[in-house]
Specification:
The radius of gyration is 17 Å and the shape is globular. With 159 residues, it is mainly α. It folds into two domains: 1-88, Rna Polymerase Sigma Factor, Chain: A; 90-159, Winged helix-like DNA-binding domain superfamily/Winged helix DNA-binding domain (Arc Repressor Mutant, subunit A, Orthogonal Bundle), CATH 1.10.10. The chain has helices at 7-26, 29-45, 55-72, 74-87, 97-101, 106-117, 122-129, 133-158. α1 (7-26) runs antiparallel to α2 (29-45), α1 runs parallel beside α3 and α6 crosses α8 (133-158).
């Protein structure tokens, strides 16, 4: 283990980054704390992997995937949607992030969060996910098309 990669050093350096990421995706302080705890448990079990990847990249990816898995979980999804409905709506009265993500393929959800929520470039997303920039571009386009169709259906059903 190289200097600066002890479990304590990694937590002190990246704990707040992981928490903020989880808080932004989950929209709930306690769920974000739980996610942060779980991500660092996974990190400590996977310390040998860090020799091949940057700790921040690894933590960012694991945090995103863990939070997306929570959102996809049906029981958690209901709780998150109820909490989001009480605390936040989209500016135009459209669906919230969790509502939009529901029903989308996992690979589109992941790219959509990095691109639309985090504002990452397609090249940055490709690097984090280990896929080509062209694949990222295709997934962003597919997500846009599916979201537009879903939003249009919701708008029609609401009237």
């Amino acid at each position: 283990m190289s200097p600066g990669t002890s479990p304590n050093d990694l937590y002190l350096r990246y704990g707040s980054v992981v928490y903020r990421r989880a808080r932004r995706l989950l929209g709930d302080e306690q769920a974000a704390k739980d996610a942060c705890h779980e991500v660092f448990l996974r990190l400590f079990r996977s310390l040998p992997e860090l020799d091949r990847a940057s700790p921040l990249t690894w933590l960012y990816k694991v945090t995103t995937n863990f939070c997306l898995n929570l959102i996809r979980d049906e029981e958690r999804r209901r709780k998150l949607l109820a909490a989001q409905a009480a605390t936040s709506t989209s500016p135009a009265g459209g669906p919230s992030l969790a509502e939009l993500l529901r029903g989308f393929p996992e690979e589109l959800q992941e790219v959509a969060v990095y691109y639309f929520v985090d504002g990452m470039s397609q090249d940055e997303i490709a690097e984090v996910l280990g896929i080509s920039q062209r694949t990222v571009s295709n997934r962003v386009s597919a997500f846009r098309a599916m979201a537009k169709a879903a939003w249009s259906v919701d708008a029609v059903e609401a009237t």
